[in-house]
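Q: For a teaching handout, I want to show students what a protein-ligand complex looks like in token form. Below are the inputs, and the small molecule is fe (ii) ion. Please produce the holo structure.
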Amino acid sequence: MEPFTTRPSPQLVGGPGSLVELPACVRKSGGEKVLLVTDRGIVEAGHISRATALLEDAGIACSVYDGTSENPEESDIRAAMEFARKVGPDCFVGLGGGSSMDTAKGCNFLLTNGGAMSDYKGYGAAKTPLLPFIGIPTTSGTGSECQSYAVISRDQSHEKMACGDPSALATFAILDSDLTASMPHKVAVLTALDALAHSLETAVSTRRNSFSSAYSREAFLNIASAIEPVLRGEASGSERNAMLMGSAFAGLAIENSMLGAAHASANPLTASCGLAHGHAVALMLPHVIGMNEEDTEARETYAHYGTLLSSCCGVAWGVRPWVEHLLALADLSPLAKCGVDPSLFSELAEDATRQWTGQFNPRSMKIEDFTVLYENAFDGGAAQDAR
Ligand SMILES: [Fe+2]
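A: Here is the structure, written as tokens, with fe (ii) ion included.
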């Protein structure tokens, strides 16, 4: 393991009903005039009226931007920023899924530092500190509330850009599992599988360290304990809480150790073929695990996670067969049924090699390797050995 320095975490406020802490979090962040960033579905679920009532009762001014789009692009962030410029907030709140939180963060970059989102691709390009930001997830997937990055896509190519800065990190993240009860079943399934992929990719990433590994393990244990009921649509309140904790722990792990080839191979499927992020990541995950098992340390980590799985959930089959079992339970359409043409594989594979996140995969990945991954994931068969 290489020398490391851990990244800071937001202050975490958790437990069912913890949304009531929002006004105190805003005050402690120095805010008096909030811009709440969300999407229409979250408004319709009633979460925004509750949040604005809490803020107004506490004497905190609040405006709502509900124009967030799924997989936000640069033009979406510009539109949010035009709204924010008129409002003049001193604090951002992102309430929703990863897209709402990333739109709030992206808007924060442009409002405080100007320019375009592409100016902030990478880490640490902001010249002026961003305004305080509070993340409130309503899904258990991205862990964006614990990350100092906004993932924003380019307008034309849909290429995902990770735009990070130390001051983009939330001052507070409110983890209120009452808010995740409103997720449509399909969203709950895809975000749960994405969070599982986060726990497993961070566990073997070349950037991992003792602290990120602890986050990955805790994420995995929480997620493993609850994911089957989530996939069956039978999750209890405590299981939804475990998923939300798992997703936040996985977000902390990503912040400290990055991801790997499942995300690198999934991003082109989202950009070029329109697959939802969680769907694409989930389809690729068992095949990436199969390929990564060629790496001794990764194989040992998966074996260790297999023992965790056995002790926490009584599943003795090992990680990769268990992930395949979850995919079958989720009944996800394989690439062949998602309109992905095999003639695109080499192009997709080339794109995958350009994904920043793939640099941290334990086994180095070339175009040929990504092509094999896509071939293996095409018809939804069980993961095969890499060669
Ligand atoms: Fe993800």
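A: Two things your students might notice: Residues 194, 198, 263, 277, 281 surround fe (ii) ion (CB under 6 Å). The chain is about 50% helix and 10% strand.
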